[in-house]
Design goal:
Blueprint lengths: L2 H10 L5 H5 L6 H14 L2 E4 L2 E3 L3 E6 L1 H7 L3 H19 L8 E6 L8 E6 L84 E7 L2 E4 L4 E5 L6 E2 L10 E4 L4 E5 L6 E3 L2 E3 L1 E4 L4 E4 L2 E9 L1
Parallel strand pairs: 3-4, 8-9
Antiparallel strand pairs: 1-2, 3-5, 6-7, 6-16, 8-10, 10-11, 11-14, 12-13, 12-15, 15-16
Helix pairs in contact: 1-5, 3-5
């Protein structure tokens, strides 16, 4: 059973259905859970062959209306989201440098149904060793900066492979909200999404999208969505451009805005390009598109 499915099932039994009323807001907990998984993938840092470190401290920024709905339950929801991150990390063979925490915060610049996720790597205060060497260019990244381990790297758990005191080549100094000192550094490598449990070796992946309950199979590598009759899937919505965006299947699958007027929103975030996972919600104009993929 997938990590997100287990997370949804745990939520169903909490507080005798209290969450069912709260989660009628546009932001759904499974969307936040998916965003936390992507945050781990996008900020994974390879320390050595056997150790890939991901953030352990997450801040989910919500619009004022969504924050007011969810904040009374932030403690329970934060615990469930942290448990989901722990399960996902175990599945992907990720490790942490400290305890996992998920916090909710209000962001006045976000509209209802939109959210942002910030993350950082915080070391456990009980295990510290010598400060890390300065980053490339002579500048030291901000301590505990988002997406980057703090200067005081912890001693690794018993039996773990040796961990370098200095950041590994290719790590991104600064991380979220901080400028990168020196020349631009390449992003940390991402692991491909794990195949669903029970999938047969060499099984073919099927791709499709769902719009208003109608399934559209993706039989080619690319699929163009738009209002034009030339688009592969036509969406009759005045907020959709003639050639609005393009879905490209693969490992991973991606979506690219094609210079549309109103842009695209993927899993609650405005973007021009994003990685897609099974269940990703794409909003074009006033239309919601659900991206799906499955083995078999």
């Amino acid at each position: 059973m997938g990590v997100l499915k287990k997370f949804e099932q745990r939520l169903e039994g909490l507080v005798n259905g209290t969450f069912a009323k709260v989660f009628k807001s546009e932001v759904q907990p499974v969307e936040i859970a998916g965003a936390l998984q992507r945050e781990c993938d996008n900020n994974a840092t390879i320390w050595n062959r056997d150790r890939t470190v991901v953030p352990n401290d997450f801040i989910v920024e919500l619009s004022a209306p969504d924050f007011e709905r969810l904040s009374p339950y932030s403690g329970q929801l934060g615990d469930e989201l942290a448990g989901m991150v722990r399960d996902y990390a175990k599945q992907q063979r990720y490790t942490f440098m400290g305890p996992i925490k998920v916090h909710l915060e209000k962001a006045d610049d976000l509209d209802t149904g939109l959210y942002r996720v910030r993350s950082r790597t915080l070391a456990s205060s009980s295990n510290q060793q010598a400060p890390a060497a300065p980053a490339a260019g002579g500048a030291r990244p901000a301590a505990g900066g988002y997406g980057y381990p703090p200067p005081g790297a912890p001693a690794q758990p018993a039996g773990a492979p040796p961990m370098p005191a200095a950041p590994p080549p290719g790590a991104r100094p600064g991380g979220y909200g901080y400028p990168q000192p020196g020349p631009p550094q390449p992003a940390a490598p991402q692991r491909p999404a794990a195949a669903p449990a029970g999938a047969a070796p060499g099984a073919r992946t099927r791709y499709w999208i769902e719009i208003n309950g109608t399934r559209h199979q993706i039989s080619r590598q690319t699929l163009v969505l738009g209002r034009s009759t030339d688009a592969d899937v036509r969406i009759d919505d005045p907020g959709v451009s003639r050639r609005h965006c393009e879905i490209r299947t693969g490992t991973p699958s991606t979506i690219q805005d094609l210079g549309s007027t109103n842009g695209i929103v993927v899993d609650g975030q405005h973007t021009t390009r994003a990685t897609l996972r099974d269940g990703s919600r794409i909003v074009v104009g006033s239309t919601t598109v659900i991206y799906r993929q499955a083995e078999g």
